[in-house]
Design brief:
Layout lengths: L2 E6 L1 E3 L5 E8 L4 E10 L6 E7 L4 E3 L7 E6 L4 E6 L8 E10 L3 E5 L3 E5 L2
Parallel strand pairs: 2-11
Antiparallel strand pairs: 1-3, 3-8, 4-5, 4-9, 5-6, 7-8, 9-10, 9-11
């Protein structure tokens, strides 16, 4: 059984920084892509950033230049460094991973609240 466990998040002032972490564990053959989605109240879940096993990244336009995704392949962990946070970044952030066990399936973390407010 595969689990994604998130950590980080919380309350920060506008312009501040936070780092989210997500660790995959269980019967894992390989982890193809890892990433983050977010969902603000009354809005649909949206892609924030993804990173593949070879390090290729993709970002939502709204976070480019402010957020950085990285990963540690040996520990199946990925990180989202969020800088210059804005009020509109407030949302529940969900870790995502496409994992082979050996069949590929999509997995989600438990979600963590990020609130940007003065």
């Amino acid at each position: 059984q595969v689990q994604l466990v998130q950590s980080g998040g919380g309350l920060v002032h506008p312009g501040g920084s936070l780092r989210l972490s997500c660790a995959a564990s269980g019967s894992i053959f390989s982890v193809y892509v890892m990433g983050w989605y977010r969902q603000a109240p009354g809005k649909q879940r949206e892609l924030v950033a993804t990173i593949t096993s070879d390090g290729s990244t993709d970002y939502a336009d709204s976070v480019k230049g402010r957020f950085t995704i990285s990963r540690n392949n040996p520990t199946n962990t990925n990180y989202l460094q969020m800088n210059s946070l804005k009020a509109e970044d407030t949302a529940v952030y969900y870790c995502y991973a496409r994992i082979a066990t050996p069949l590929f399936n999509d997995y989600w973390g438990q979600g963590t609240q990020v609130t940007v407010s003065s």
